[in-house]
Amino acid sequence: MRQEIRKIQELMEAAEYVTDAPVATSVHLALSLRKPLLIEGHAGVGKTEIAKVMARVLATNLIRLQCYEGLDASTMLYEWNYQKQLLHIKLAEASPKPLTEKEHEIFSEPFLLRRPLLQAITQMDQPPVLLVDEVDRSDEEAESFMLEVFSDWQVTIPEIGTIKATQPPHVILTSNRTRELSDALRRRCLYLWIEYPPFDKEVRIVERKVPGIDARLAAEVARFMEALRHVRLSKVPGVAETLDWAQALVALHADHLDAELVNETLGCVLKDADDIKRFRAEVAKGAFQPAKV
To answer: In the chain, N or C terminus with fewer CB closer than 10 Å?
Structure first.
């Protein structure tokens, strides 16, 4: 078992995702047990990236369902191509075919627009990775509908019939905990919480993701971010901001951090005016002092 987990970790690392044993174990179990994996954690810590890496490792398609308030079943599952249907009706007006046959034609596969859930169910060659991103942004009705689909991987389209997946997709759900998810959804899934990376891991991420960065600068950036996350901010920066900042510093040909450079590039890290003021106040009173590398 440990060997299999190490293999998953090696494959994820080879696909440019700096990982650890808990993440690799969760991915291994999700693949082996064919259960959805619910990943929660702070914004920007790499939750979505796990689904992308899984798709690369499995050499399969990534199908993404981006959740938002007001997401409904038709957006998740399917819609009819009304424009194409109207055009077909126009062209078929002079046809001697019976009306029932004409209706059957326009409510058939060629006029069906497959949305993410139906795409995931009907992919034939190999199971795709279905990413349900920011599921906490959808409402409870959408969550219940997804849960119903996940339970048996089949849907019924009244005009066509029941469609059942021959190979259910691998499912990754992400959440930033903007609302509490239902117990029913949590019970259906395996669970993984991703914390901000420790110093050593963040250094590895920066060095892997930012080509050409100086080793000293990578360490200073990671140490700075580690300290910054202990400041009381309304929008705590994640790994995504770390990488944005590191890339900006490389573009400026920097090889180390100093107060002037930090001040000039602060907008890469903090994206809220009050947070910037709060940070500068901490610096002014000497309360913000990242440990030396």
So the answer is: N
Rounded Cα–Cα distance for residues 174 and 57 (Å):
19
pLDDT in tens, the chain (293 residues): 588 999 999 999 999 899 999 999 999 999 999 999 999 998 889 999 999 999 999 999 999 999 999 999 888 998 887 888 788 777 777 666 665 666 667 776 778 889 999 999 998 788 999 999 999 999 999 999 999 999 889 888 888 888 899 889 999 999 999 899 999 999 999 999 999 999 999 999 999 999 999 999 999 999 999 999 999 999 999 999 999 999 999 999 999 999 999 999 999 999 999 999 999 999 888 867 776 65
Q: For residue 144, what are the CA distances in angstroms to 103, 141, 181, 183?
A: 32, 5, 10, 11
Whole-number Å distance between alpha carbons of 131 and 120: 10
- Cβ contacts of 192 within 8 Å, gap of 6 or more: 22, 23, 26, 37, 38, 39, 40
170-175 β-sheet, strand order? 62-66, 129-133, 170-175, 37-41, 190-194
Radius of gyration of the chain, Cα coordinates, nearest whole angstrom: 24
**Neighbour count for residue 40 (Cβ, 10 Å):** 19
Backbone angles phi, psi at 95, to 5 degrees: -75, 140
For the chain, first and last CA: distance in Å? 37
pTM: 0.87
Q: E strands of the chain, at which residues?
A: 37-41, 62-66, 78-80, 112-114, 129-133, 154-157, 161-164, 170-175, 190-194
Angstrom distances, CA of residue 257 to CA of 229, 233, 289: 18, 22, 13
Residue 63 burial (C-beta neighbours within 10 Å; 0-12, 13-18, 19+):
buried
The DSSP bridge pattern shows strands 190-194 and 37-41 to be parallel
Classified as helix, coil or strand, 204 is helix
Q: How many CB atoms lie within 10 A of CB 26?
A: 23
